[in-house]
Write a structure and sequence with these properties.
Layout: E1 2-7, H1 23-40, E2 44-47, H2 60-70, E3 75-78, E4 81-82, H3 88-101, E5 107-111, H4 118-121, H5 129-145, E6 149-151, E7 159-162, E8 175-179, H6 184-193, E9 196-199, H7 206-222, E10 233-235, E11 239-241, H8 245-258, H9 268-274, E12 278-280, H10 282-289, H11 292-296, E13 301-305, H12 313-337, H13 351-361, H14 385-397
Helix pairs in contact: 1-12, 2-3, 3-5, 6-7, 10-12
Length: 398
């Protein structure tokens, strides 16, 4: 299993000191955190995408492109790439460029985000969010797998004889995760294409997460990509750790109580009981996160949020060190021992593995030129009945 950290890039006042970083400081802090995570041996660093204060991560590929040049091993990803409000042509080109720069040491997670006003800022309507996600991704895949694209859809101007550049590294597009916490249509989309599904369950009980993951697994098998237990799954999480649990709670409570994300709501204790937030000792984190595999099946990526709510850089770097030294090795041992079969993927596929698989299957990207629908099933996800119903419903709502 892969273990990593992600940042939502919030600019938040430290309630214990009153210090509020400016945007420049916050960006530099994120770069430092990612490089430290690489040096500590974590598997993944991911950044969110936001276009409004108090967040600064408006250009993930710029940040990840820089990090590709100053890190050695860590996989660079996004915690959200907004498939609804970014032009799929730009996504195709920017992430293929990042893939080339990073020598394949990257992937991305597509999502609709959680900021409603972002839709009109980029000329879109939030009421068409799901149909946008479906159509834009269908075009994105064609731009990555076909050298010349003729296309016409509902939400953007047509394309005629268009070639996105650069072409994907070795003719194989980046691995894609689809992120959703409450929308079955997005889990359906991930399953249809055989992509990964990441449930970033920061604010949800595990029972809800298990239902969403189970649905994705069922549909993954339905579309012929393998058994349900072979589907590629990721989860989110939040932790704050100190050697002594009482110290962890005492230190983190002021940040929790006033954090813009969940401050002034449930108590730290209630929130921790209802969500994956775990504030305590390394063993408490190991004991709790080691049970998630029992609820959702063996999964391939576990991400942690650790740099939010105004926590100072020194504290965040200490959290990375504790994760790397005291938590991840034991958690990895526990979780991987629960993998029920050797043919269940241990990790998400690497670029090299995907290149080898494509060559073995004779499915180099040139074979997809002019193809219609998914190369494995022959279907188009935008034509799937359950998704077509949602599109009609959204049209009626307008």
């Amino acid at each position: 299993m892969q273990f990593g950290i992600f940042s939502v890039s919030d600019v938040t006042t430290d309630p214990t000191t009153g210090h509020t970083p400016d945007d420049t400081e916050r960006v530099k802090v994120m770069l430092t955190i990612a490089q430290h995570a690489d040096q500590a041996g974590l598997d993944v660093f991911a950044t969110g995408e936001h276009h409004n204060p108090p967040f600064v991560a408006s250009s993930p590929t710029t940040m990840l492109g820089y990090l590709a040049g100053v890190t050695n091993n860590i996989i660079l990803s996004t915690a959200t790439t907004l498939i609804t409000t970014n032009d799929p042509v730009r996504i195709a080109e920017e992430y293929a460029m990042l893939q080339v720069i990073a020598d394949g040491r990257m992937d991305l997670m597509l999502g609709r985000g959680n900021t409603g006003p972002v839709y009109p800022w980029f000329g879109q309507d939030i009421r068409t969010g799901v149909p946008l996600a479906i159509e834009n991704y269908a075009l994105l895949r064609r731009l990555w797998t076909e050298d010349v694209v003729d296309w016409q859809g509902r939400f953007r101007t047509p394309l005629q004889g268009f070639t996105a550049t650069p072409r994907p590294l070795d003719g194989v597009p980046p691995f894609v995760w689809h992120g959703s916490i409450r929308t079955p249509e997005i889990a359906e989309q991930a399953a249809h294409y055989g992509d990964g599904f990441l449930h970033n369950n920061l604010f949800w009980p595990m029972e809800h997460t298990a239902k969403m993951v189970h649905y994705y697994r069922q549909r993954f098998e339905h579309y012929g990509h393998g058994r349900a237990d072979q589907a590629i799954v990721g989860l989110g999480g939040q932790v704050f750790v100190r050697p002594n649990s009482q110290d962890a709670v005492r230190e983190f409570r002021p940040y929790f109580d006033v954090a813009p994300v969940y401050g002034y709501g449930p108590s730290l204790e209630d929130f921790s009981a209802q969500t994956p937030l775990t504030v305590g000792s390394p063993q408490q984190v190991i004991d709790r996160y080691g049970t998630f595999v029992d609820k959702v099946g063996y999964y391939q990526r576990q991400m942690f949020l650790i740099d939010h709510a105004g926590l100072p850089l020194k504290t965040v770097l200490e959290q990375i060190d504790i994760l790397a030294a005291d938590i991840i090795p034991e958690l990895r041992r526990i979780v991987e021992a629960k993998r029920p079969a050797a043919d269940i993927p241990l990790n998400p596929p690497t670029h090299a593995e995907r290149v080898a698989a494509d060559k073995a299957a004779g499915q180099h990207h040139q074979a997809h030129v002019g193809a219609v629908g998914d190369p494995y099933t022959g279907h188009r996800v935008e034509d799937h009945p359950s998704l077509a119903y949602r599109s009609q419903h959204d049209e009626q709502a307008q």
